[in-house]
Amino acid sequence: MSAVPFELGLNTFGDVPTENGRTFTDAETVRLIVEEAKLAEAVGLDVFSVGEHYREGFVDSAGAVILAGIASVTDRIRLGTAVTVLSTNDPVRLYNEFSTLDALSGGRAQLVLGRASQTQSFPLFGYDLADYEALFEEKLELFMRLQRESPITWSGTVRAPLVDVTLHPTMRAGGIPTWIGVGGSPNSVIRAAQYGLPLMLAIIGGEPERFAGHVDLYFRALEQFGKPLQPVGQHSLGLVADTDDEAAETWWTSWKPMIEMMGKERGFYPPTRERYQSELLTGALFVGSPETVAQKIARMVRELRISRFDLKYDVPGLSRSARAHSIELLGTVVAPRVREILAEESVNV
Amino acid sequence: MSDVTVGILGAGKVGTVLGRLLLAAGYRVLIAGSGPVSRIELTIEVLVPGAVTATADVVARESDIVVLALPLGKYRSIPRSQLEGKLVIDAMNYWWEIDGIRDDLDDPRVSTSEIIQDFLPTSRVVKAFNHVGYHDLDAGPRPAGSVDRTAIGIAGDDDAGLARVAQLVDAVGFDPVPIGSLRDSISLQPGSSLFGANFTADAVRTAIDDFPATPRGQLVAATRAHESGGVADD
């Protein structure tokens, strides 16, 4: 009968919005994100997380700075990333930023570390994409040691050696919640389990249920490595509006040009409207009325055993008002409805 | 059918999906990852139950047909000598986000399957399973004759090999559509309208027919014509 623990969060990549046809400036967008995080807290959402991208139309390149701004105008909502591109970050700098954020926010900082589906940070900071795996592996090992050991002595290939170093401000004991973001690679799932870190599934296309095997794999691997049970979360894209039709139409208008642009860059075939409809119905887009989205999230809790769901609520060009309304509905209608469905199901089991 | 052993090199997103499909179709499946066998044992036990894990050398040697499902950029790690005389299915693509920027793999004059055939001169290489997304492969198998059956373009220079791969594609639940030679397989690669598309057989044929008129098709034709001194080859 006890309430099923479930967290609902928001993700932003700092997508630049429009208002009455006018595109926001980058600076306006940065300020809007802080306002949206305040709104997220006001409507009762649990987590607000910022991505890391380096391209036109996205202003989340300095996520820790945005999160610091949010920390200073909120009290309760937890502050995280979605995702931090660890391979091209310096683990020491990352520690410094997030121990500072954790201090500033009174213990609300957390992270999702991953690769991200965008890779502009590699050439920008002078890394070779082909080295991605090795960079991630070594930097993750160092970052987790930094959080758990002090002083630390370390040497490796990805940065200058550390000799008897203590970093300040010191992170809270045991470090901040650190999740591993994965996009479907079984090896990444195993790696998260090996470190005993919670798993964030980035599900951005196709039927989400196909990740059930990955969740099995994760739990089995935790057991095999002798690690305690950890939560599984899901990141997906979407929009909540008053009706299914309105949500579908509004999202399509902004999502289509973005996905066409991505298709051009990577050489894949952009989805048709028909395909989009099936993504809404059975796929990875959480676009619809509060009831539709709540039912779909509850289904994910059942099928994928997630206890956290993060909705990426922005897409370039989406209007400021549509974003705000989506956040409001998510907090005031979807979140309580998901918890209600889950409570009913736990009674019926 | 069950006496045919298919080996898969690559235990990632594509390799695990193909493994499940092949097992469901009754094939015996061997699979290898990039590291030690122990590294993929749990993954295969959970995601591809029924497949047998082994080193890449063993998988290549013991299999009748070998599917390449590793990152294309690592093709030089393929155990070439174990593949002598074998039928090899190339399911790989140049994906710069994984492989890094590689001009050698992104040359419109040469299909990446031609590069693989050059690297495996005594094997018979057939391109297949590369242009449909792995989650569509996972969700997409249908019995022969289904109206919404997803089609997979296949290409190769060896008729017997092509026929055998066509039979395998059909057995796992997709309509095989021969689209030409390995040289022609560039029309299945990233940048073509088929790449990432989930089409029926008729739509695949139409996309292949239309390819020369697309910007990508024109670029391929122009660079290939230039390569042969401005005189149309073939």
TrEMBL record, chain A:
Q: Name one GO molecular function term.
A: monooxygenase activity
Question: What keywords is this UniProt entry annotated with?
Answer: Monooxygenase, Oxidoreductase
Name the domain of life this protein comes from.
Bacteria
**PANTHER family in alphabetical order:** BLR5498 PROTEIN (PTHR30137:SF8), LUCIFERASE-LIKE MONOOXYGENASE (PTHR30137)
Matching entries from CDD domains are given as: Flavin_utilizing_monoxygenases
Tell me any Pfam family this protein matches: Bac_luciferase
Instruction: Pinpoint the Luciferase-like domain residues.
Output: 18-304
Does this UniProt record's set of keywords contain Oxidoreductase?
yes
Q: Which SUPFAM superfamilies does the record cross-reference, listed alphabetically?
A: Bacterial luciferase-like (SSF51679)
- A cellular component term, taken from the record's GO annotations: cytosol
Question: Quick check: keyword Glycoprotein in the entry?
Answer: no
Q: What is this protein called?
A: Luciferase
